[in-house]
What does this fold into?
Amino acid sequence: MLFEQVLQQIINGLMLGSIYISVAVAFTLAIGILNFLNFTIPALYMLAGMVGWSLSQYGVPFGLSGPINWAFALFIGIICAILASLLVERFTYRYFKMKHGDATEHAIPLVSSLGFLLIFEYIILIAHGSDTRGFSTAFSNLDWRIGGFIISIPQLLSLVFSILIVAGLSVLLKRSKVGRALRAIAENPDAATIMGIDVDRIVPIVFILIGFLCGISAAIFAINYHEVSPYMGDHVGTKAIAAMVIGGLGSVWGAIAGGLIVGLSETLSIYFFGASSAQITVWGLLLVLLVFRPTGLFGHNAIGKGKF
Amino acid sequence: MFGVNFFQENGMSDPILRLEDISKSFGGVRVLEKVSFDVERGARHALIGPNGAGKTTLFNVISGIHDPEQGKVLLEGKDLKGIPSRKRIKKGLSRSFQNIRLMPHLSVLENVMLGQHSRFQFLDMVKPLNFSAKSTGKAEAIETLNSFGIDLYEGQTVSSLPYGIRKKIEVVRALMSEPQLLLLDEPAAGLNTAETNTLRDLLKEVSNRGITLLLVDHDMPFVNSLCEQVSVMNFGQLIYDGPISDLKKDEKVLEAYLGMDENSERSNA
Amino acid sequence: MSGYLSGVLAILGINIIFAYSIYITAATGQLNLGGAGFQAIGAYACALLSNELGLPIYLTLVFSAILGGAISFLIAFPVLRTKGVYMVLATFAIAEIVAGIILNTDYLGGPTGMIVNAYIETEVVLVVAVIIVILGFYIMSTRIGLAMRAVHDDEAVADLMGVDKRAIQVGAFTIGGAIAGLSGGLYALYFGFIEAQYFNANISIFVLLYVLIGGTQTAWGPLVGASFFTLIPEALRIGDDWRFFIFGVIIVIMMIFRPEGIVTRDALERVWRQLFSGKRNV
It folds into this structure.
């Protein structure tokens, strides 16, 4: 009996992890390619979810339309996340020019991304207030029962979908011309420019990917858990950062592994030790990793070497 | 009984710096290969070689930034092995850097005062710098800057100052620790003729105060006019060590330096 | 003094003290994104000592500083092995762990929080704030402060100049933790009630932002930053949510046009010259 319960929790944990995967990959792309700890990412996730909900509830603002079908609304939510991400690129990353290379200077993009986090989070709070909102979609409670275990179909599909998207991304980075350009930029942005890569046009692609991943993740969450809230970004953000660190900064597959591990540890920790314990477990693990094995499972030393 | 031999046996004409078979690799690439030479006390000793010969790496080994895989660094006859880089300045070693490394957010005076750090005890370090000029070293720093003709540029941080001035400040900073041996990494790089002459005069004066100079530079006329001894490196190895006057006759050096004359002319332009 | 003004000044005082704790480490080149954790440690220490042992206020405040400093010192060694983004994440993790521990410990009130039995007036907060500001200026005016700023600008060269960078970094981290603990103790005593949910990521982020926007080049920075972001919203009577939205906009604009912060050394020099023409600040 106990074994089965634990196994069920493991399944739940993996499903939960699927939410974290995409956001973790977004973080890891920003750090790995751009050396940028992008704190706006949780807000992008939240934007997609809240905008999707708002459109499906009220339609376009200023009465320009009636309530929009949930799927289309979520789709537009994803587009919003991408556009917001591009705003961050335009006003945070593009302006940044390193002059002295000391620690507080490296923090400038990070600080700016915190500014955008506040902007996006509080726009939504001002517009909609702080309540959690129910979000009904076509998939309600489609469960698959196998031998006493419950696997939610939407969650399973989400997990598969997340992994496929991220795997596709990984292939893109390895095989395509854009991917090679991105890896060159990750190695050495100045050398990349000298080699003829138009950095100013390639970098926005990373931001588009980041927005897309956050949006997809929010859509998956909304579909599976039937709710969104202005604080949904906060809940996922810290977990996704933990997942990124566990997997290793800059590693896409690491982020997948990390996401699943975080989902698992969170669920198991709550099951065995109670609701609030998850925080200590996840962050304790993180701290130990950061101090003793900062490269995580799959990361490599180059990232964050020296100052940032 | 009290001839030169006595003094030699008692270590009084020992070289101030002795490098014995220094070897170092980075990631499989051999950067220094059994480099050995002496720098005599009070000498003006040049270390030259084509780019990538390992000169700055050698400086870094002497400073303690890197540990050699083999070999010893002996300062005043004592092995520096195991002595962390931070403590070497107290042993009388000071240096300047190839790319100027002044603290960009500190003023001229503050940068120079940083050089005095190793001479101060904790109790003096907790005194406010603006109030006790003498015991905090501030007065001495101001006087030194004045004696070298460098304006204090009060209140300005060094990042906005011209290149030549910053180069000079770095040398002054290196002097503030009252070193016995001064390592200078391309002190004349990027300076025009007038500035180079001023630098040479400055270094001559430093040398006259008894400080040993070991300098790396590519400006051959400058090196020629200042130094008497020279060691030449190429591909991590020492290929010549001796008086600078015999340098041009050495075959190995000529081979390594084909086109050397063109290089020195270009850097003077 | 009206209750409202009194409240604002108390918050201002606590924010200023908290800002100096982060400034001391930022001036040394380390970014601490876990300030709330140390503030929480100080707050709960103070609350416990007041409630359980009935210690007088001044003693509890001293202990909250000592405990904040002691725990900072202990974790300084592992944390300072990390660099840059890793350090930011490690300090963030620490704050989360502290909050998590408090949430899980019923003795500390768990999620319901804890009431503090002693109470202080605004005046006490302001006096302590003045002391800390003077302390901040004092430290930065010494050779130790010079060494700190050298470590910030170029660690490797500072080391070669003989600066014990490990000692400076650990020292700065410890003093920062002590001051943060002190601010937590003052918070506990002034508001009379503390809960883990208050000492969250937002608090840590905001105080770091005050310091970076104020400027880390001089000891004026945290004073200006904390005052600016505490007082301006009150003065303009901006409501809660809008205030943070505007805060966000200001941050983005500042990072584009003046990333080194409001108060820089050069700006300070120009102000000095205008105020005291003739007296120079080298």
User: Anything to note?
Assistant: The interface with chain B takes residues 99-100, 102 of chain A (CB under 8 Å). Residues 2-127+149-292 of chain A form a domain with the ABC transporter involved in vitamin B12 uptake, BtuC fold (CATH 1.10.3470).
